[in-house]
């Protein structure tokens, strides 16, 4: 029992000793924390005192600056007052010397100053206008020279005849046929004249229309290669020649688009574009002219910052209406704009085509650039020849006079315009009407055209009955 009490007493003593130790350490920690807080408080007080001193110094500086400004303002007021007194004295002296009132003097001074200002402004305006004009002309010459130097072109070499070589002289007899049967059939089918002269181993095809001339050339070349020449074979060869010309037109259109750098053209547009390869304008090939215009317009548009694609497409397509030769009373600009609209070209391109001869007022800068490119291509040395175009226009008018009459199927102006052959529909025109039609065509030619010599009008009425033996 005593040992238990001893253990209990020892435990209590240890507990009391531990409590004393904990209390002592707690007091020391509290004193350390209080000392740390006091140090931080003193540091904060020092910072606040430093800021207060800095603000006080800034306030003193502001007060001093305000005082200096007040002094300067006071001095300025005194200077203004002094200047006003000097001006008043000077004005009084001028009035005394000039015997003018202030209002009179002011009006005189203002009038003189206004005259000087107007004179200076007019001189300055003239100088600016002259400089702008010189700079504009210099810039325009630079752009046009750059565009023309970057486009390689050929001179006009248009002709209305083509020579077809022969394997031998005996082929001339075959081409003529018995009593001229073959040559008459050939000319009636193709609309081209065959000139058989003393030139060895060749005959000449003459026709103002390049498309007919090309078809006739291909037809005759096919007949010579085959060796069999008679009216039925002529018609077969001519049908193949028409297909060949159409295929060549498509290839020419694709090549021209490639040279001009144009993509995205509707395939239905290609036949009309390709037909331009066989069209001429004052001796200048229209398709080559179109490619050249597209290249020129693109170069100029790039220099001026315009829409290059619109300018290139519109300039390339501006003469496409010349492919349509059967629309009487419609200009090629209007016909070309209608075709471009049908084949989905942008409206800016359609407008530029319609306005390139000022038939429609231009409303965009791209349209003006198309006109510039057209004029550049047409006016360069050697580009065009008036004589060929005038001849072609006379031939076309000869054909148009007869084609306007009812019952006419085809019309060919031949022999350099000295003969007009009119093919009529036998179901609509009988023999008596054919004679009347010939007289009517001759009368209209006499009244509407001016020409030398005489023009022979031949009306051909031919009916055929075809049956197949099986």
Q: In DSSP terms, counting alpha (H) and pi (I) runs of 4 or more, how many helices?
A: 14
Net shape: elongated
Q: Can you tell me the CATH architecture of the largest domain?
A: Orthogonal Bundle
CATH T-level topology of the largest domain: Hypothetical protein af1432
Largest sheet: 3 strands, antiparallel
Secondary-structure-based class equals mainly alpha
Strand arrangement within the widest β-sheet reads 1-3-2
Total strand count, please? 8
Distance between the termini: 153 Å
What would you report as the Rg, rounded to the nearest angstrom? 51 Å
Query: How much helical structure, as a percent, in the residues?
Result: 55-70%
Mean pLDDT over the residues = 79
SSE sequence, one letter per element? HHEHHEEHHHEEHHHHHHEEHE
Strand content: 5-15%
**Tally of individual domains:** 3
Low-pLDDT parts are 152-158
Using the coordinates above, name the CATH class of the largest domain.
Mainly Alpha
